[in-house]
Amino acid sequence: MKITRKKLVKLEACHEAVEWFSEKYPKGVELIAGLKDMIKDDSKFEWANWFIVRVMTRKQYLRYAVYAASQALHIYEEKHPNDDRPRKAIQAARRCVKNDTKENKAAAGAAWAAAWAAMAGAGDASGAAWAADGENW
Length: 137
Description:
This protein is an all-alpha fold and 137 residues long. The protein has helices at 5-10, 15-24, 31-40, 45-54, 58-79, 85-98, 102-133, and strands spanning 2-3, 29-30.
């Protein structure tokens, strides 16, 4: 697949990214080479991530999201060892990847909502603790 200015505009990339890309690759570039260049430049890493998820199929996107969440799960579980909602959400998403049924989608949605609530609750607790004793944080 070739990345071109036209493709970036069609995908609604930000103006800064379209201009950077157009200067660097006026004739376009193959996907992998373009992604490698973006990843090499720490300030463009997020652009590479933004682009790649927009060219994936739904199944690829789900697998990518499951992989990314799995990589960070241990961080949450170290702080909240008794809260298995994020793990259950990842497991439900894995079931959707394997068998994309209406039931699995509903279960993944419910698990996601529970995991979101867990994250929001953790953020609220952190904010309250900071407010109570902010100068020692």
